[in-house]
Amino acid sequence: MAIRSTSTATTTTRSVDGDMTVEEFKEWLMKFDTDRDGRISREELKRAIRSIRGRFSGWKSRRGIRYADSDGSGFIDEGEMDNLVEFAQKSLGLRIVVSN
């Protein structure tokens, strides 16, 4: 998977390492769905951005929700996930590829 965890005695960091598939991105992102409602909230997206050492995670999470949330609910659900993939590629610099 493209997002890799490494641990040391003091910290755990995650880095983006190469390409990931859309499915890998979705699986990774759903790990941040802390309330298990099947949707990604702004706070959950913020945590995901922070986990890859993204800067300005609060601002980027607001932009991500606005970009991807086509029904205006304030959450990203399964039907809007492709919009979030597009946002992650354009605004977060993640390399997400379609698997064959």
Automatic annotation (TrEMBL):
Q: Where is the EF-hand domain?
A: 20-55
Give the InterPro entries listed for this entry: Centrin_CML-like, EF-hand-dom_pair, EF_Hand_1_Ca_BS, EF_hand_dom
A single Gene Ontology MF term assigned here is: calcium ion binding
Q: Which SUPFAM superfamilies match?
A: EF-hand
Bilayer-crossing residues are: none
- Gene3D superfamilies recorded for this chain? EF-hand (1.10.238.10)
What are the UniProt keywords, alphabetically?
Calcium, Repeat
PANTHER family cross-referenced by the UniProt entry: CALCIUM BINDING PROTEIN (PTHR23050)
| Protein name as it appears in the record | EF-hand domain-containing protein
